[in-house]
Amino acid sequence: MPVTIEKGQFLADWAREKGWRPPKSPNGRATPTACLNIALVNNMPDSALEDTESQFSSLLGAAAGDIPVCLRFYSLPGIARSDRARQRLSELYFGIDDLLGDRFDGVIVTGTEPRRPDLRTEPYWSGLVDILDWAERNTSSAVLSCLAAHAGVLHSDGIERHALGDKRFGVFDELTLGEDALTHSAGPVVRFPHSRWNEVREDELVSAGYTILTKSKEAGVNLFVKRKGESLFVHFQGHPEYGVDTLLKEYRRDIGRFLRGERETYPAMPREYFDAESARLLNDFQEKAENDPHKTLLAEFPERASVLHSLQKTWHSPAVCIYRNWLRYVASKRTETSTFASTAQAGRR
To answer: Catalytic residues, which ones?
Structure first.
């Protein structure tokens, strides 16, 4: 079932592809009260802002089945934005005060590019802490993605992230551990993209009471959970929501930074992502770029015709499975609340 994007709009490209319109009540208005109400706090940088909207909307739509989902967009203050991005936020996003003054069935909080070694010195830290504290009391479940997951365990349990020697970048096989409702039917091995410079470690998480649901020998822990307050907190160090070309875009962006002299070393190619022919073309481009780096060379990057057509979204099925299980969990909590309220009302009568 498609996702309704609140504030009178929904993603035009996704809706056009699916040929869908929001459900109507007898008076002709959309019926968000029949939906699971999910908040997406999208903190991604401007270059990925709209892609992230589309990725999560599409993933939730694919996972929802017969569960109607109403999605409302938010973004943290304190993140530098261009004029174009600020215009989009004003048109499609709600203010953080609206979030903190309401209750949602679930919330998804994305990360953003880290700028400082200590997350607590980031300009958006206090706002992010407010959201984490709010989610414990006002959601049935909260999903924290990448940097947001690191912020969550730092705030609630004092678990520090650890810098990696190089960017953990690519698609990795992960083992599913034990039996949990979130990973039900996902299979013994799942594949997910990762793109990060830091990690939180299994031993520290387990010592603090977190349950590890998936991990990789090469990438470490990905999915882990812990109940905090009234909410089940679901943490991803990876990115099950990524589109098929997201890692390619990030790789190209990092190459551009090298060619402009903004980083000293040429970025490593994402692992287990390109086929052999695409890898050959990209290695040839790397050799040329390292021999004569200049910013205009990026125009020769072998992207569209040579590379993009060969990419495969090998993580789509497990991503849909886990998010379907998450939506079912959130829906079951709403049913429990409704049943309790009806029973209490009958008792008063």
So the answer is: 146, 239, 241
